[in-house]
Amino acid sequence: MRTLAVAATLALAFAVGLAGPAEAKGCLSGAAVGGLAGHMAHHGVLGAVGGCAVGHHMASKHEKQAAAQAQGNGAQGNGAQGNEAQRN
Length: 88
Known about the structure:
With 88 residues, the protein is mostly helical. The protein is built from three helices and no strands.
């Protein structure tokens, strides 16, 4: 039995090592809030899983909005510099 547990632990560690770094943006904070809310309803794990999914979704959404805004500001900045050059 102990040999099986050691083998399973090593296999899990190997699999995690091959997986690479995780993108957990928003997941940890969402899981904390969801786990707390789920705990109040006696479903802590379910709340943490749902919170992680929602937190990750919101972080991805925020990242896309920030990228779009940065791209939009870059285009406006070039136009403003062009207008200033024309005035001089």
